[in-house]
Amino acid sequence: MTERVKKQYDELKKREYRNARNKERILVDDVRFDGMSRSDKETELFCKIIRSEDIVLREGDRIGFHRHRQKGGQWFPSGNIVPNYERYLREGFGGVYESLKRNMHKGDEAFAKNAMRCIEEVFAYCERLKEKAGKELRAALEVVPYHAPRTYHQALVMMKCIIYTLRLVEIPHVTLGRFDHYMRPFYESDRARGVSREELLELTEEFFISLNYDTDAYVGVQQGDNGQSMVLGGYDAEGNDCFSELSEVVMDASMELCLIDPKINLRVSKKTPLERFRYATEMTKLGLGFPQYCNDDIIVPGLIRLGYDVEDAYNYAAAACWENIIPGRSFDIPNFGNVVFPKCVNKAIEKSNGDEGFAGLLGLVISCLEENVDAAIGWANSKIETIVPHPYFSLFIDDCIDLVCDYSEGKMKYFNIGFHGVGISTAADSLAAIKKTVYEDKICTLSDVKKALDANFEGYEDLRKKLASCPKMGNNDDYVDGFLSFLLDNAEKSLCDKKNIRGGFFRLGTGSAQGYILKAKECGASADGRFSGEPFACSFSPAIGARIAGPLSVIKSFTKFDLKRVVNGGPLTMEIHENTFRNEDGMMKVAMLVKSYIEMGGHQLQLNSVNRERLIEAQKNPEEHRNLIVRVWGWSGYFTELDVEYQNHIISRTVFD
After folding, report:
1. 643 band by pLDDT with thresholds 50, 70 and 90
2. 338-656 adopts what CATH topology?
3. Which of 253, 381, 461, 531 fits as disulfide partner to 204, beta carbons 3.0 to 4.6 Å?
4. How would residue 77 be classed by pLDDT, with cut points 50, 70 and 90?
């Protein structure tokens, strides 16, 4: 870490700058003009907010674009997005502006005028910023954002301009996409003209620090849930490995700074060499909760199977947590509903008369899954109908620029909806427990189970213990693992032939997001012995408290289903004790475990280096552990900034030595 970077890093860690922000919030209802359309109103709101922003700069700041206002406009229900950074890096804002001006008669002229007005306000802000900027930032602003950048530094400034302006109106989860893909030409051009790797590493670290200044001002379920993730590596349609020197620079910067942003996603496949997994394990060792691994062998064909063009599928990025999305080509909303598997099993038990046998019970589970899916589809369609115009946001979807239309018209190439899959291991464990205790060992009836669940096991402790002792997901036991396949198979089948009201399709995933806490609170006791309201496992993982043979048995259990069918996203999540990483033997074992998971057909994987005793100590003395980072679900945050229920869940997860 250079002295320049260290100075900025130390200022960031003090967090004192947060106290200087304007706490007032400007809402769309504050913009009152009779006869104004919603598009006009959103434009006016954007313009008012950006004009109200004072210029905030740090000493020696080469990136700029920091928040003055703690809150932006009203929350914007767009889901997670990956803007078309490549277009702006290729054309500049000026190129997009001229395209709208030239083609406005071919589309929605009112949209074009509003979008152009937003761009003009961005230019005006940048002029104000340039007046106060230091020499290097001022030089960059002579080029960007109007023109396309010519250097790596200019490209970083362009990136921050896009992120900053989108965040002003509280568009949530502005993801960085395939950073090493679109930034590589600028990096290699600088290297070719003599700029050293060390100089570009320093710039990268300054950019990363700038991303972290405003994380507390971004909307999210918890602090740190801000969507600032990026994707590295991957393979193209010709089979070429896209991992480069820039990819290594990004990972080195992340490991040197040890900040929560940007979260790193590493695209890999069966062809990825073991040395790269070993290198990435150095990052896991630091306890950052990343990289998250994404398997091209599963995700790319899975996206093609859903209906994405081959070229687009190979260009996928992770949108915020893990949801796979095509940068700049879609308005997919990958987190617009939930299939809550334990609730479906519980409903099937409620509907059963006890006479239909286990096969009949499974039939009721299928019926309840279909009901859940239909309800989720209905809710999603109703929310699509409420989407309002937003000219500035629309500027970051290619088709909106080319067709001169607002995103709310739904004319973009992809407008698909994703559903999370919540509590899958709890549901599979419950079915296995019912099969064994009721239909095989016959130690109780389904009616007994139903009464026990209704009573939250009060007065049924012996039965609860018997249910809890039945086979559990994560032990490579086909007896229970088959139920995971059964549940995913039938949930996916109930979605695969349905279209949303914009003509797009629905996608199922195995990620739970915050549903492992929130949806679990809404779910009564379950037949695996779980009490009412107790949390589910995070995403695609063994249930909390389940006895597990070891990490290899876990990855075997969770790779038996064809995961190409559920590529909305959702990682297998595993906690590994920090002592495992203390020597080379342990590091190589972790790297080989990851490689094995990918070769077995795993979808996504996140590993966390943890020390439970340190987490408990941090709960007791938070001021002494302010910089302790943990993986929460699809993102990492500072442990002491989380609500206690999320802290407790992380502490309760199974830790492998």
Report:
1. confident
2. Anaerobic Ribonucleotide-triphosphate Reductase Large Chain (3.20.70)
3. 253
4. low
Q: Which residues contact 15 (CB under 8 A, 6 or more apart)?
A: none
**Among 581, 580, 578, residue whose Cα is nearest residue 628:** 578
Domain boundaries along the sequence of the chain: 338-656
Check whether 521 has a pLDDT greater than 60.
yes
pTM attached to this predicted model: 0.94
Segment (H or E) for 150: none
**Closest of 497, 468, 498, 464 to residue 480, by C-alpha:** 468
Rounded Cα distance, 365 and 194, in Å = 64
Task: Please give the mean pLDDT across all residues of the chain.
Answer: 92
Give CA 619 to chain center in angstroms. 26
pLDDT at 621: 92
Dist CA 226 CA 215 (whole Å): 7
| C-alpha gyration radius of the chain | 25
How far, in Å, CA of 105 to CA of 93, rounded?
20
Q: What are the angstrom distances between the C-alpha of 316 and each of 115, 249, 295, 524? A: 27, 21, 11, 37
The Cα 599–Cα 407 span in angstroms is 39
> Distance from CA of residue 114 to its chain's centroid?
30
Question: What's the pLDDT at 283?
Answer: 96
- For 26-37, how does the pLDDT look when each residue is reduced to its tens digit (9 = 90+)? 766 666 666 788
CB 328 within 8 A of CB 396: yes
